Amino acid sequence: MPHDLTSAPVTPYFAEEFTPGEEDVLRRYFTNLDEPVFALVNLPEVVKGALFARYSRTRLSLRRLFLDEFVGELDVSGDESIDATIGLRRAEELYDRIFFEYGDDSVAQLGGVHLACEQASNLLTKILERGRLMSYLEQSTRYIAYDDRPGGRFRYYRDPEVLSSPVGARYIADLDRIFEVYADLVPVMVAHFRERVPKQPGDSDFIYRQAINAKAFDAVRGILPAASLSNLGIYGTGQAYEALLVRMRAHPLPEARSYAELMLRELRKVIPSFLKRVDLPDRGEAIGRFGADSRERLEELSEEFFPADEPIHAAPTVDLSDFDPDAEVKLVAAALYPSSHHPDREVEARVRRMTVEERVRVLSALTGDRDNRRQRPGRALERPTYRFDILSDYGAFRDLQRHRLLTIEWQRLTPLHGYVRPPDLDEAGVAGRFDEAMDRSAALHDVLVGPFPEQASYAVSLAYRIRYMMEMNAREAMHVIELRTSPQGHPSYREVCQQMHHLIADVAGHRAIAEMIRFADHSDEPELERIEAERRAEERRRARGDATYA
Fold this sequence. Notes:
By secondary structure, the chain is α+β, with helices and mostly antiparallel strands.
């Protein structure tokens, strides 16, 4: 049966403290001051965007970040009379009549909200980021160390049901120990990379430190469990939030259902009319029950057809499981269609009669002279599609999952498929400590999976592999591959996307399409992935005279 929202325990949250003066400023722009979910209001759009952009690279909460780095640049005196924490009191009769009474969903596409979602587990962030028509910025494990203890506690999710059970004490003890291994290895790996890659004469201390830290954090991030907390910035329309909340309210993970209530309460302070249907029995709740019932039926059938004790056959890390052999012919037809006056079938039939040289001329015209990866050909490239079956570490998956103009489905996170240990850890002589953390993670999962099948994944470290499917058209494949193979990318997802490129060329035989993806980078992993990006960023700071990060 679908889960009832009211059955979800309240999400535990470490509330930070503010001075009375800070609270006076924050009340003007944030819908609450003491909960993990809050909306941003009464701020220019560019400020909200800049806040979220900075958000991903700091361990600060959004409210603290706003106070420390943004208030000084804004004139906040003109908003003294505003108190956003009590909601925006605006007339909504028109919205009620058009949207609610007449059901014109398009109206809900025109009102958007910037929402901060803090202290969410890495399982929850994937649920929050599932919607296609929303924008996300997530706190990065590459730029932030997880060795601090706000409120005296490591930053991982403490599920109330688990903690109140007989295994609660072990859950805390094991995750604390895993975090301690992470904290111990961060300085070890920083020292290792400093010794291996000396600072270049032209590099500032700042960019060298940033690049070294990013390398070290990347090397040890696999130790962190999926319970690790993250901060997430979301921008979406009322319609997108409605769909997200309906899914979350019926989700089997208690954290998702609890968090949905927090989100709904804050969103109703700013766009209440757009969310009236979320918890109506015959609308949002009925839609949620439909999805939950479908999921449960399929899980039962999967257990019937694929018994748990059945061996899993070996498969490539990245497998091109489906593609259209005629994709390149259809791509040429799609490219010519807008410029002709003929029916689609006739255009394709004529393309099939073309010579190879003639088709090449069309594809050359479509591609043009691309100077960089941001110059992408038009929608004709959306005609070919590729379906990739991928087995990678969860850390790589959490980065690739944020791509939205595609179809992605993933299986449950477990220790079943083993883990990936970065070779750098072997070089530094700490492979044993890493393996110790992995063994502890797997053992805790196995203890939890019986009484808490949904929460058991909290215990699984990010280095463990997860199987997922990504289906995308060639235009999105160009974007994903060119972006995620860049030298500053993480080695795990970089390898996945390099294999995607090879499979399009060699397995699908779509060499013309593969050649159009000309900014795919197949070079060897650089010593410091982030150093060139940091150098460019420093040049930009110098050009505008910004010494903030010097």
